Amino acid sequence: MVRPTGHQLRNPFAGLAPRPDLRTAHRNFDGQASRNGDGLTASFDPGPVSLRSAGGPELRAVAGGHGLTENAVADDACVASNGRPRLLLTIRSRAALAELTPDLTLLRAACDRYGLLGCYAYSLPDRHGRAAARMFAPSIGVPEDIANANSTACLAAHAAGFGAYRLAVDMGDHLGSPSTITATVHRDRTGHRIRVGGQAAIVRRGMR
């Protein structure tokens, strides 16, 4: 059995090979997993991320679904996709992020209108790359996600444009299930490559 310790990500690779493949209906993802004493560290490559700026009616509609005006958020909101688009919405502080109480009916209508998976609201990363985030996706039946690695990968791609190549994003606090997702970006001959992952602690072993 694997349980996150503190702000740690639930490990999807427990019991798998050191370099497992994650398979979906559309592609395979390259993964890595390693033991560290009583813990496991895991990461995977989520694939390329596309980015475009967000503004105007789209941003106003999604911000309004959060009870925010367009002027209440930072000016670098964007739409990011590594499969399905979602809006990355910058909130100016962790405190303001924690206080969000979105109207899920309005937010779903806004996301459906503009073809968005949902909205990943995040605080500005500090100088160490630490941030907090909340992912709301009522359009797919998820009022709020505990941990969302794909959206954190999208944020990493966005932040790399501002010179930030390492992130640690805290999620799940509001739901009583704290987790931290890490993301690193490096450049190779094909462009930016991203890895997202985290750590988990083994608290009990059992027979399958």
Automatic annotation (TrEMBL):
Ranges of biased composition (kind: Basic and acidic residues): 20-29
Pfam families registered for this protein in UniProt: PhzC-PhzF
Region of interest (Disordered), ranges: 1-49
InterPro entries named in the record: Phenazine_PhzF-like
Protein name: PhzF family phenazine biosynthesis protein
